[in-house]
Design a protein that fits this description.
This protein is α+β, with helices and mostly antiparallel strands and about 180 residues long. The protein has helices spanning about 15, 45-50, 70, 130-145, 170-175, and strands at about 85, 90-95, 100, 110-115. The protein starts with 12 loop residues before the first helix and ends in a 7-residue tail after the last helix.
């Protein structure tokens, strides 16, 4: 059995923590090495764009961050911007560094985990680290309201407010102009 909680399409690490292998003999420095940092499938776009030395328009790949430096330089220090995950039932989580916040959704309470010491998500630290909860929730809110994780112009979301954004009030969403139906 594995240590990770959950399975495919849910919010837990077992739902989206998977190995990723790259074979690129002409480009990968020191083949056979490993790197344990987080990336998301969404990061493939920015990585390929970076590899091809082209520029993405400001309204494309708003959450995609290139990890090309890790491939071509074994000493690269790649720090992933906050990574948002979304489950099949509509729940959201944000991971920043070693910290992961599962955002409230329906009967799902807010939960906080330190993935460096608890990758199996067995010890909820939300009550012990309320400031961290607030910080991560604010980051998730900013990402939703700005329509992007990466730097660049604010992008409208492609829908109006939806109930899965339980930690953001409908008024806040609409008042900040993120409701594209206005």
């Amino acid at each position: 059995s594995h240590i990770f909680r959950g399975g495919k399409r849910d919010i837990w690490e077992g739902g989206h923590r998977v190995p990723f292998l790259v074979r690129w003999p002409a480009g990968i420095a020191e083949p056979g090495r490993s790197w344990d940092g987080p990336i998301g499938q969404v990061d493939l776009l920015a990585t390929f764009v970076d590899l091809l030395d082209v520029t993405l328009p400001a309204d494309a790949g708003e959450d995609s961050q290139s990890f090309l430096p890790v491939l071509i330089d074994p000493t690269a220090d790649h720090q992933r911007l906050p990574l948002i995950n979304h489950s099949m039932d509509g729940g959201f989580a944000i991971t920043t560094g070693n910290w992961k916040l599962v955002l409230p959704h329906r009967s799902q309470a807010t939960e906080l985990y330190d993935l460096s010491t608890d990758p199996g998500e067995t010890r909820d630290l939300a009550e012990r680290h309320p400031q961290r909860v607030v910080q991560l929730q604010e980051q998730a809110t900013d990402i939703v309201l700005n329509g992007r994780t990466t730097p660049g112009p604010v992008q409208a979301n492609d829908t109006g407010y939806w109930e899965d954004l339980a930690w953001i009030s409908k008024d806040t969403y609409i008042l900040t102009g993120r409701d594209c139906r206005r």
